[in-house]
Design brief:
The longest helix is centred in the last third of the chain and has 16 residues. The strands form 2 sheets. Strands 5-6-7-3-8 form a 5-stranded parallel beta sheet, sandwiched between helices. A 3-stranded antiparallel beta sheet has the order 2-1-4, covered by helices on one side. It has 7 helices and 8 strands. The two termini are 29 Å apart. It has a single domain, classed as P-loop containing nucleotide triphosphate hydrolases (Rossmann fold, 3-Layer(aba) Sandwich). Helix 3 packs across helix 4 and helix 4 crosses helix 5. The model has no long low-confidence stretch (mean pLDDT 94). By secondary structure, the protein is an alpha/beta fold. Helices cover 31% and strands 25% of the residues. Bound molecules: adenosine-5'-triphosphate. The site of adenosine-5'-triphosphate (ATP) has 13 residues, from strand 2 and helix 1.
């Protein structure tokens, strides 16, 4: 059985008249951690959106788990995406947001209490997300993403707002995820995260 989780061939994306990705090739094996690195506007988020089935290619093929990514329930049972900050439910605390995530996924990867510990949120668990600091809110987003059952993580700038210590901790958490057989593709500007990963560029040149 192929262990190829992501298989991108000849991917070209034009947004408006703007050529964003051109003839991109990318193969990611199970258990790999891949960092998509490059300057602002080079197409990192666009590539992640293609992998998540949220951006159709202009030409070329994108295969995730052997099929074209589809923005449907079956796809999202295996894939967890960290993108922009979500809309938070009014009146719910940080803990309750994680409980909600746990309640809708029968086989959560960790309990709410351990997610609060791992993401250093236990002391602020009873605060609504909008009363958390930027970095704490990002840790809550990460907690929700990693609590969900998944075997492929797509992370767009997971380092946003995190202090240096937590970036190191996040790199370890991603290594643990990969050691358990998961696969990670992230867009990042962070040297710690990129340094612990195979680096690729959205322009197709290996960094
Ligand atoms: N809807 C759109 N229409 C036209 N061009 C767009 C659209 N969305 C993004 N772009 C352009 O596509 C290019 C790639 O954007 P993308 O967000 O993928 O870059 P990035 O590498 O993730 O950047 P950053 O490091 O700033 O997050 C940029 O030049 C951007 O201005």
């Amino acid at each position: 059985m192929s262990s190829l989780i992501v298989d991108v061939a000849g991917l070209t994306v034009e947004l408006g008249a703007n050529p964003v990705l051109r003839d991109l090739e990318l193969a990611v094996e199970q258990g790999e951690i891949v960092a998509v690195v490059g300057p602002n506007g080079s197409g990192k988020s666009t590539l992640l959106r293609c992998l998540a089935g949220l951006q159709p290619p202009t030409s070329g093929t994108v295969r995730v788990f052997g099929a074209e990514p589809a923005d449907d329930a079956a796809f999202w049972r295996s894939v967890a995406l960290l993108g922009d900050e979500p809309a938070w439910y009014p009146g719910l605390t940080a803990r309750e947001h994680l409980e909600l995530m746990g309640a809708v996924h029968a086989e959560a990867r960790m309990t709410v209490e351990s997610a609060l510990e791992v993401f250093a949120l236990a002391e602020r668990a009873d605060a609504p997300p909008l009363n958390l600091s930027t970095g704490q809110r990002q840790r809550l987003c990460l907690a929700a993403t990693l609590l969900r059952p998944s075997t492929l993580l797509l992370l767009d700038e997971p380092e946003r707002g995190l202090d240096a210590g937590f970036r190191v901790r996040l790199a370890r958490l991603l290594e643990e995820y990969a050691d358990e057989g998961g696969t990670v593709v992230m867009a990042t500007h962070d040297e710690t995260l990129a340094g612990a990963a195979r680096q690729v560029s959205p322009t197709g040149v290996t960094a």
